[in-house]
Amino acid sequence: MSNFTPTERTKVHRKPDRGSYDRELIYRILDEAFVCQVAFIADGLPIVVPTNYVRVGDKLFLHGSVASRLMKTLSSGAPFCLNVTLLDGIVLSPTATGHSVNYRSVVVMGKAEVVQGEAAKLAAMRDFVEYVIRGRWATVRPPSEQELKGTMVLAVPLVEASAKVRTGFAVDDDAEYSSEAYTGVIPFKWTASAPIPDPRGKSKIPPPANVLHYSRPQ
To answer: What is the rounded CA–CA span in Å between residue 213 and residue 218?
Structure first.
């Protein structure tokens, strides 16, 4: 699996030692999260929209209403930037300005392509559902013809991408540690709580294993 080639748009300039263009690392980060922030220009204004995605091979897929500003803008071929960030910990420093966070993040620069055809769109919708919770597609009603018509699916070839990762403790000078303040890291981990049943659902149906023991990545 080859690395991404850094470009002027994806090269990490601030703290370059934290930057990475390793495709495997970037894909691991993308595959753990499923919500991204998409930044684009619409009507001359900068816009950031959160949405979910799925990675299939060397492409990301986005979906939304055909009437949404995000889908309309991206489907026109407009350039955009996509970011995913996973918070791994809060870094407690002996100084106010030395506090930080440990994180793993990915930035993708690109242009989107509209996925055409009912079969291709249906396959992408299945990928979205299975990416969020594996095994779910087989237990629910698939999208109707009308729902597919009202949904736009976009493919984003992964060509320009970079990761940035911070790990470890504070980076203050040793002299700063004469303070009485506690220093260290508060680790963060994304974990699911017990499922809450829908009151309109069938109460006799227990949560299946993929719901009861949910974890990321799937």
So the answer is: 11
d(CA 199, CA 213): 21
pLDDT at 1 over 90: no
Residue 218: DSSP 8-state: -
Is residue 216 classed exposed, middle or buried when 0-12, 13-18 and 19+ CB atoms within 10 A define those classes?
middle
SS3 121: helix
State yes or no: cis peptide before 217, omega within 30 of 0.
yes
Based on its alpha-carbon atoms, the radius of gyration of the chain, rounded to whole angstroms, reads 21
Q: What is the largest CA-CA distance in the chain?
A: 67
pTM as predicted: 0.92
Contacts of 105 (CB under 8 A, 6+ apart): 29, 83, 84, 85, 86, 163, 164, 165
